[in-house]
Predict the 3D structure of the following.
Amino acid sequence: MRYGRFNLLMPRSLACLLLAGTASSHTPALAGDVLIADGTAHHLARFSADGDSIGTFATGALAGRNALAYGPDRRLYVLDSANNAVLRYNAITGEYLGEFVTPGSGGLSDPRGMVFAPDGKLYITGQAASAKVARFDAQTGAFESVFALAPPFPRDIAIGPDGNIYVICEICQDVIRFNITTGASMGRFVDVAPDGCQKPYAMEFGPDGHLYITSSGTEDAIRRYNGNTGAFINVFADHPLMDDPFDLKFSPDGSTLYVSCQTSKNVVAFDGSTGAFLSEFASPGEAGLGQTWGLAVMPCFSDHDGSGFVDLDDFIAYVHDFEEGTDNADFDQSGFVDLDDFIAFVHAFENGC
Ligand SMILES: [Ca+2]
Ligand SMILES: [Ca+2]
Ligand SMILES: [Ca+2]
């Protein structure tokens, strides 16, 4: 998918008129901004897609290792492995919106991975008495049930192209698949041991539909596996600046793959198509950066109809929702729909994302 610029679709004079009233004390997050969970300062550091530090995006009662995800309501969710909770933030302003999953709810213990699924549920991996995957209501954060017993040391969790649930087992170095309807194990999807993947922690199904997995230890690489069969394809990316990759996320257009690293305490950027090294996106200690944990990349919210690209259809769809005053027209996530939302949408649309 690619996002383009659509400046011609709105007269510049109208856009300028609308934007003239947008002066504010904060700079709203833009599509492609990278958020890095800092495990030393316990905040979310914000960088532009160009790699420039834009200071602290969000604070709150963050501790432990953090996994980040955007919810179906477009808010930003942060999993906290020390407080055994999920916190919610305004994804545009970084305003803290409180606990979404309360500490220890559903027996959460040392949770490391979460994913919002199309079935309206939030799935979280954790340890507890026996390692497990717990299921929560994605609207309210309320605990619903134990979805499945997971392998020991479950880490990242993802939804596959087949709609089922995938869980990384760090200690057994496998990816296990679970039927999303029944919770029954479907066995190993990736058996990484034979080809040497080491201590996998995070995974993403990429723009090409294949599965990208962090491999740490001495390998320090990103491995790619067939998204349908689990077969090993290749070592997609590696570089000496990457030591113990911890999390990975693609940019909204898929052009860049960001990797945070636990031991080198940095974030490294690779070409999202070829795996070629691009840059040390955030170097150790840059802008006060400490321990680098989870990553998030701000989505393209001006893709209002979710088609994967931004075009006039999005403008028409947004104007319709704005006139109706529906929740998804609350572009600045203030909790209500007003002219500020229209201005913010136009600004994002004008910028192509
Ligand atoms: Ca290493
Ligand atoms: Ca669209
Ligand atoms: Ca609003």
In short: The two ends are 12 Å apart (CA to CA).
